[in-house]
């Protein structure tokens, strides 16, 4: 014989009691039953653009020396939308390979910045990698901190033969004023130079011989740590004509002389600017090639060199980048109470 069904009033009371008990139990056990993972506070983020093979144990690209210094024991953190995982150590130093070119690198940077696993509210950034340099201002193996970042591609261009002889064949496009150039914090650049200018740099015999092909005093220098404008362009330009145009653009925008050609920094900085500003952004590049040939070779010969005719010094330059950059990274982390609120006053 079945039991009689409870009255509607009694049924409502039973449901209310059950709901209250469940809510009480959930409140009592919630924090321990479903713990939340606290976001990693990023103190310094190191961005590289490519790695040749593995992160360690083979020929080093832009990331390997950083990885071996800071993240050999770190677990990769997958980030949807980013090219490669992020690695972090216990000191709050994180890094990743973002990809080459403006779109590739900036899309990875945005995915990482917006991921809730990380807290970038107080982070400093080191955008690092290899680059080219004009022989009038730099040399193979040098390492350079950016004072300005200038986008080479944003504007109008036309063929030189369609212009009056000697006049520029580039004109800025209106509407790009806010993101075609970035002046990086002079106080932060000054700190970077103070901490790293005397770093002993590696050199190679092949690079020393290659420099002697150029008559410029700057090109013949041994590797050094310097500053200047970094010119960002997806166009991998070569030759004295394109170099002259790049210098024209830098001066047109009120920046320092360009000393580095690279493909990512201005785009990455724009992404950082829209989320956290640019006060803590650094761009660090090592020169592995000249952006034009010597007087005895054509631009095409320089762009596509015969076997044995390359600059040399690549392995030494990627090591130099980390040697210089890690001095700044280590100082910021070791003195975090003074740096977390912003760049300290010079001393």
Tell me the name of the CATH class of the domain at 129-338.
Alpha Beta
Any low-confidence stretches, pLDDT <50, length ≥5?
1-35
Number of helices: 10
Principal-axis shape? globular
Return the average pLDDT rounded to an integer. 90
Q: Tell me the Rg in angstroms.
A: 26 Å
Going by helix content, strand content and strand pairing, the class is alpha/beta
Keywords: Signal
Signal peptide: 1-27
Protein name: Purine nucleoside permease
Organism: Variovorax humicola
Write the layout of secondary structure elements.
Blueprint: H1 8-33, E1 40-41, E2 44-48, H2 64-70, E3 87-88, E4 93-97, H3 102-114, E5 118-119, E6 124-133, E7 143-151, E8 156-157, E9 170-171, E10 181-183, H4 186-196, H5 205-211, E11 225-232, H6 240-252, E12 258-262, H7 265-276, E13 281-290, H8 299-303, H9 314-334, H10 336-339
Parallel strand pairs: 1-5, 2-4, 2-6, 6-13, 7-11, 11-12
Antiparallel strand pairs: 3-4, 7-10, 7-13, 8-9
Helix pairs in contact: 3-7, 4-9
Written account of the structure:
This protein is an alpha/beta fold and 347 residues long. It has a domain of 210 residues: Rossmann fold. The chain contains 10 helices and 13 strands. Strands 2, 3, 4, 6, 7, 10, 11, 12 and 13 form a 9-stranded mixed β-sheet that branches. A two-stranded parallel sheet has the order 1-5. It has a two-stranded antiparallel ribbon with strand order 8-9. Helix 3 runs parallel beside helix 7. The N terminus is likely disordered.
Concise summary:
The chain is an alpha/beta fold and 347 residues long. It has ten helices and 13 strands.
